[in-house]
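Model it.
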Amino acid sequence: MKGNKPSKKKIRFKISSQLSEYLKKYNRAIKLPILYDDMNRYMARVPLLNSAGEDTLWETVYYNESETNEINDALCYIYTLLLTDGDTDALDHLTVDRIDYCTFGNTKPFRVRIINLLNDNYDHFYIKKSDSSRIYGLELEELLSPSSINYLTGHQTLVEEHIAGMPGDVFVENHLDVSKLDQIRIAKEFIKFNERCFVRLLGDMRAYNFIVDITPDIEGNQYRIRAIDFDQQSYEGWKSFYLPQYFKENNPIIDVGLQHLNHDTVAQYQLEERSLIARRARATRTRLNELLRVMIKDDLSFPEKVKSLKADLAHHHKNDTFYECESMGDIVLNNIRLVLQKEFKQSIIEV
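Modeled.
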């Protein structure tokens, strides 16, 4: 990053009443049987090691015997709410295998491992402190990205599904030595991911904050990069923070792109993704407008960061309308609208 560093600690902003009403309307806000604060009542925790005996920076937590059954039942029910809209038929063959606690990061998440006793298959979900920045990040991911995402909120608690895929840092370290065709596909997907992050101002997408989904194809593989951390949705105050290409952790992928792609090809891939984002925005126009109307009234950052980012983007786009923005939501709206107007003559965002 050029001369700027992320804030040492991201400040959480509570969910506003307007955002809460939006979440209720779209079935994201419900009464949860267990909250984040309840999860903090563990009596012991031990480091979780990986298969090589290395510390994962997660810790497995244990609860008082008198509370364990109640907590496990509540977590299994949350899983049905998340995956089957609360259908309790599955509860008889679900059990909690392990609960892990993450000792770093802003949300201090709990990761719950659920096992299906019928076939020993397992799945995960996360319980975190809710934060309005993260909620907006999740909603914009749902509306403007090619991937759907499942989550629930209630009483300042956030429940998120696990996003399956290879951690980006593992992929960058071990899976770039592939055929030329695959390297081109990786570089192409990174350009598109870079574009998706920048249009909606999702920040801090260094390698360990995204996963890579690899799908075998007729010739080689297809690659999809997905964000897994939405804490830094329109929070920091400089443009490069929202462009994954500027993080040193992503340099190996950038190097692959430099080997195989020229300027015209990169521009073509950028245009393709902007067009796709514009089509998604048109398809979800009503809901996207509702979200952005709430977002522009919300406090998501601090005045000095808002001032810095709007000046940076005004210079980048050579467009002074950013100076009129009064909030991070205003800036996001202006950035999305500017990109979409380049793709379509008619207005899609009507806020």
